[in-house]
Amino acid sequence: MLPEPERVARLEAALPQIEAAVAGETDPVAVQATLACLLWETLVQANWCGFYRRIGEDLLAVGPYQGGMGCLRIPFARGVCGACARTEATQLVPDVQAFPGHIACDDATRSELVIPVSAGGRLRAVLDLDSPHPDGFSAGEARLLEGLVARVLGNTLEW
Ligand code: SME
Question: Do the Cβ atoms of 79 and 101 come closer than 8 Å?
């Protein structure tokens, strides 16, 4: 795995291109699909990269993603994604085996980062990143991704 400062530099360098790719797009699926593709190319430590969309008060369903097959539905009560949706706070989990209730979609996953996505004052989705490496994501990467989703999904319509 790349050292953390190199990963942050690589993500920082990619952000202007990623934002340019979705500039002006207001359809959330179009933006999510494009982010899943481009973040997958950038975050090379990930084995899963994509979105779970809110489809009810307390329920997520899988959205655009890259990687192995993910769970189709996740209640807010379950897993790292559910914790993110419930608390609307980023979940940075360096060791998924130490996270109570973690959902093991892929046995190879060792660490996870989940970022809340809000628009119109409501939690609409989460961005889920999994890695087969322990401690695969950093607080620096989390902050950059929080900014990205706020800028490119915060004003999208028709959720
Ligand atoms: N590990 C996640 C489930 C999503 S998949 O792994 C793609 C969780 O505990 O929420």
Answer: yes
- For the entire predicted model, the pTM comes to 0.96
Other Cβ atoms closer than 10 A to 42: 18
What is the pLDDT at residue 105? 84
Tell me what pLDDT residue 14 has: 98
Quote the ligand 1 centre to 3 CA distance (angstroms): 24
- Residue 101 has a pLDDT of 86
In sequence order, the 6+-apart residues with CB closer than 8 A to the CB of 82 are 60, 74, 75, 76, 101
Contacts 24+ apart (CB under 8 A), 9-15: 10/42, 11/42, 11/43, 11/141, 11/144, 11/145, 12/144, 14/38, 14/41, 14/42, 15/144, 15/148
24 C-alpha to center of ligand 1: Å?
30
How do residues 37-74 score in pLDDT, each as one tens digit?
A: 999 999 999 999 999 999 999 999 999 999 999 999 99
Pocket flag, ligand 1, residue 153 (CB < 6 Å):
no
116 lines ligand 1 (CB under 6 A): no
